[in-house]
Structures are given as structure tokens and as C-alpha cells.
Amino acid sequence: MNSHYALSARAFAPAHITGFFEVHDHADPMKKGSTGCGIVLSAGIETTVTMGEGIEETVILLNGKEVEGITSRTVVEMLTDRPVRVESTTQVPVECGLGASGAGSLGTAYALNRVLSLNLTTNKLNGIAHVAEVRNSSGLGDVAAQSLGGAVIRTSPGAPGVGSCDRIPSGESDVYCVVLGKLSTGMVLGSREAVRNINDAGKEAMKRLMVRPCMENFMRCARDFSIGANLATDEITDIIEAVEAIGGMASQAMLGNTVFAVGTESTGAELKEVLSGFGQVLHYRINPGSIRMI
Ligand SMILES: Nc1ncnc2c1ncn2[C@@H]1O[C@H](COP(=O)(O)OP(=O)(O)OP(=O)(O)O)[C@@H](O)[C@H]1O
Ligand SMILES: CC(C)(CO)[C@@H](O)C(=O)[O-]
């Protein structure tokens, strides 16, 4: 490419909330991942990749600020040795259990594929995003769910096309979130004790979900997982209990300091009101769709 012009492409990738999960280690990052269940959201991350004139080194920007962006950077390094500018704009909070790093890495892979005319298939691009997440401990199963959409049960671990998934028929239900603070996925996954607790509770949650795989049981399994794995703080437990007091169901977004609740048309307003007592309420929907070029 000559350097008198810039080429750019943009992709949207949806956010994802894991309700419960189990870590499956493997030397091959395509086979490493998690099993579990979560919901893909209507909101997500838009990522623009630009290359050409004036871009002499790779830079990653998150909402206009230069960041290390190690997961997105790994995607770039896996696809090209040319310098690129990667700009992600988030419609969801980062480091809060909404899978922002997975969405950013998917957007980077798809936009780079377009800019460089790589002609890679979706399995290949999703695999690259998954490997970047696994290598940087920023996610294990988000990419598998984000590449599918809906309420995704990850029945066996690994990259899309390697692991396997099923779905709970969910419709486009309302999802409400209250963010209490940040939590680094890498920090939690780096603790052996935390992973042991997660895996014990995650295995049990999966067994229970598969007996009756519906949204109501998913929320119950997620709630019990967050408490059983010792991840829910007192503040999170208080919010879950407040939602349960009005007949609703809430749990913790993994791995974040965030509570999420799934509502119906009849319960939505009440749910929102209860949650607003604990912080700003973010409103999304379950998204049956996936990644798209924009
Ligand atoms: N789209 C993005 N572009 C660049 N950097 C990102 C992007 N999304 C997240 N990051 C960075 O990735 C790092 C890891 O984020 P982390 O995995 O903890 O959070 P998350 O992906 O938002 O949520 P989750 O807990 O669901 O994985 C953070 O330093 C964050 O700033
Ligand atoms: C590890 C994780 C909870 C981080 O969001 C997610 O990637 C998952 O469910 O594997």
C-alpha cells in the first residue's frame, strides 16, 4: 500500500454477561476456555481500524484515550506486522463484567480483516479474538458467546468452532445493570483459590441448568454461583435480595462488580425502581445477533 491515503473499516461486537462459568485449562489456547452460561447484549463496542498515511506505530485508543489495550494489540500482532490505529468506543462500562475486552478484540479482528483484505472466515477471526483473550487472561468464554448471540450455554470450552455452544430461547428481554465498581478479570483468574471456588460452583451450576435450561433457572443458577463461588460482595448480595423481595431475580455479572437483572414487560418498571436505589441503572436488551461490519 502506498502512504498517500488511509484505509479504514469499522465493526460492532456485542457486550456479554457471564452468569456462571467453569475454567478449563489447556496448553492450546484454541482449546482453553470456559463452560458456563451468559447473555449477549444489544449494546457493545464499535471498533475502527485505520492504516496508511501518518500511522507509523500501532496505537490502541479506548473512548479517545490511548491505552495499552493488550488484547486488541495481540489481535493486531496475530494478523499483521504493519502499524495500525485501533479506536474502540464503548456503549458499556469497561472492567465491569460486560466482556468489553472480548468485544474489542472481535471488532479489531473483523475490521482488520476488511482493511487488509485478508478474506478470513468468521471461525478464523473469532479464533484469533479468542486466543488473544486467553493469552492475556482478559476472558475465556466471552468471544464464544459474542460470536453467536442470545442466551448462550457454553457446553464445551474453546474458541468458536472448537468448543460447542447451545442456546436458551430467550427473546429480546430487558436487562438492567447497576455497576458498583471495577474488577480486573486477570486478577481474579490469577488466584488459584478463586479459580478453585469458581470451578466447584460452576460445575454444580451447569449441572442444575441443564436439568431445566430456561431463563428463570439460568438466573437462579447464576445467583447461587455468585454466592457459592465467594464472588458476591455484601453490597451485591443486598441488591440481589432487594430484587428478590419484589419477586424478581438478579445476579452478579462475571467477572465484574456489577449486578444484572432480567425483566419482562410487566416487571421492568418495578425492577428499575428497586435497582435505582443502589446506583445508576443501565438498560439493555438480550441481543439474538452478533458481530457486524458498520
Ligand atoms: N475495547 C477495548 N479496547 C482496548 N482495551 C480494552 C477494551 N476493552 C477492555 N479493554 C482493556 O482490557 C483490560 C481487561 O479488561 P477486563 O477483561 O478486566 O474487563 P472487561 O472485558 O470489560 O470485562 P470482563 O470482566 O467481562 O472480561 C482492561 O485494562 C481494559 O481497559
Ligand atoms: C472469564 C469471564 C467470566 C470473564 O468475563 C468470561 O470470559 C467467561 O465466562 O469465560
TrEMBL record:
The keyword DNA repair does not apply. Residues 80-150 form the GHMP kinase N-terminal domain. Keywords: ATP-binding, Coenzyme A biosynthesis, Kinase, Nucleotide-binding, Transferase. GO terms for biological process: coenzyme A biosynthetic process. Its EC number is 2.7.1.169. HAMAP family: Pantoate_kinase. Phosphorylates (R)-pantoate to form (R)-4-phosphopantoate in the CoA biosynthesis pathway. Belongs to the GHMP kinase family. PoK subfamily. This is Pantoate kinase. It comes from Methanolobus chelungpuianus.
